[in-house]
Amino acid sequence: MDYIKKLSRFIIPYKRFAILNIVCNVFYALFSTLAMLSLMPMINVLFGESEKVYVKPIYKGISDIKDYAENYLNYLVTTTTEADGPQRALLYMIILIIGLFLLKNIFNYLALFFITFLRNGVLRDIRDEIYQKVVTLPISYYSEKKKGDIIARISGDVNMVKNSMLSVLELIVKEPLTIIFAIIAMFMISVKLTFFVFIFIPIAGFIISRIGKSLKRKSDKVQREQGVFLSTLEETLGGLKVIKGFNAENRFYKKFQESTTRFYNFSNTLLNRQNLASPTSEFLGIATIAALLWYGGNMVMVEKTLSGGAFIGYMALAYQILTPAKAISKASYQVKTGNAAAERILEIIETKSVLEDKPDAITKTSFDSEIGINNISFKYDDDLVLKNFSLEVPKGKSVALVGQSGSGKSTIANLVTRFYDVNEGNIAIDGENIKNLTKHSLRSLMGLVTQDSILFNDSIKNNLLLGKEDASDEQIVDALKIANAWEFVEDLPSGIDTNIGDSGGKLSGGQQQRISIARAVLKNPPIMILDEATSALDTESERLVQDALENMMKNRTSIVIAHRLSTIQNANLIVVMQKGEIAEQGTHEELIASDGVYKKLVEMQSFE
What is the number of alpha carbons within 13 Å of residue 40 lying toward its C-beta? Predict the structure, then answer.
């Protein structure tokens, strides 16, 4: 139950509900025991075995409470029988039993009522924290993780922990108290018979603990496999066009089926082990009851040391122990499975971001002079992608990065926006190392347009509002006009309120990209980073998007990563990259005149 300590901070805001649950469970356990004890006087009245007491007993203190309660009940039965007959006494006993059972069930409901707020509150808060962690962890974290596994953790694993937490409260309060009160009452009825029962309890406990030993490991396998098939599903939904285009439906179906078959086998093993708990504990309980019937029956019929009513009441109490004992064994299994789920949740929550802001990080609100990329080196895995790379981007200038795939162009965009940190050297804005700035203020200075136009299943308006939350409709329309997008948006059924579908699927590639540009325009940042913003477009769309980009880049500092060289001929500086280093740099005319790598690239694209 170590994870309960680690997750206790989620419980603390709801501690009042936990306290109320515990109080109600105390009363539930008390009235459960009293309800069973109340069967004894009823049976005694029924069979005429009640002891005749004509003098009202006097209460002499807590040590005398058992005798006082017994004598007082017998006094009531005696006086009622003498005055109104045994039927009236039996009716009173029945009303007493109904009242006690009613109180037991009222407190049981109240305990569940209060625990519901705790369970669902903890569930919500854990999910909120995991989601917050998901969006704050660096992008590098997800290059090693499957998205489906993250989804499995935030849905199934959190739910399992919620159920496990309820089990813990039952494990430490409700069921143990019910057993303790019942055992106290059993000792009060017969010490000898209770010691006889205790011979069987360690044996039963040992057998049940053996069953639950491997549950955590088996549960972990089930949860991991759930992450695998959810990842397959997520990849399938994201790549349906490719799957269908390459007739790969059967291949992906087979991959999914293999995962669900493993999940099926792991789940069967786990559930069969869990399901063994209830019948095992019940059988052990019935075996105990059978031994009691033999031993206790001997005390009633042969030794005459126990009345029939007391024996029936004792049997009811012994049987009452079975239900909480079964619940404890079941809860202990849930705790073990919850432990495995909690470890997977805590793995995300406790992951430290390598890109955390420094405690004294600076909030930068303006861009004044230049971006300095100073002798940086960087690698994603083992091989360096950038080697001793240096570049200065003055304010108001446009710098283009060109080169073959794998030369490190897009890596520059990832490092300037601090999606990753450099391994050596530094990147500075106005002379201040970006590691000393808050990530929020750094990215507030930048607008990003990527090769893949990342849009969300929402309206055009809400997609643009990511750039500026408080923008008016007029500002949105102006941004769309600058991005050459208003011409098609105004013709849509609901204009800017039109839903564009999952990933903007209702729009063409060029339209999606122009919406992405409009989003960056609306943000109106001093620095613009364009990462191959036109490479995935046809010629006509490229021309419209290129016009939109030129409109946006006027009087703005820009880092343009380009595959199509025709789009960056007007840049103030063109940097040609090869294998993470600068091969040559200059204006378009200078580079053509130098007859180097750039000219060859231009000629190759012209030939294409």
Answer: 22
592: left (phi over 0), alpha (psi -120 to 50) or beta: alpha
- In the numeric block, the tokens 């066009």 are attached to 241
Rounded CA-CA distance 206/418 in Å is 56
What digits encode the pLDDT tens for the residues 274-320? 677 667 767 776 777 777 788 788 887 777 777 777 778 787 787 77
Distance CA 504, CA 454 (A): 8
Specify whether the CB–CB gap between 322 and 293 falls below 8 A: no
If we measure between CA atoms, which residue out of 358, 418, 374, 387 comes closest to residue 140?
Answer: 418
pTM value is 0.72
Q: What is the per-residue pLDDT across 186-208, written as a single tens digit (0 to 9) for each?
A: 888 888 888 877 776 666 666 65
Q: Is the CB of residue 26 less than 8 Å from the CB of residue 177?
A: yes
CA–CA separation, 41 and 57 (whole Å): 17
Q: What is the DSSP letter of 362?
A: B
Residue ranges of domains in the chain, CATH in brackets: 2-349 (1.20.1560.10), 370-607 (3.40.50.300)
Coil/strand/helix, residue 376: strand
- 324: Cβ contacts below 8 Å, ≥ 6 apart: 174, 175, 176, 178, 179
Q: Assign residue 428 a region: left if phi > 0, alpha if psi is -120 to 50, beta otherwise?
A: beta
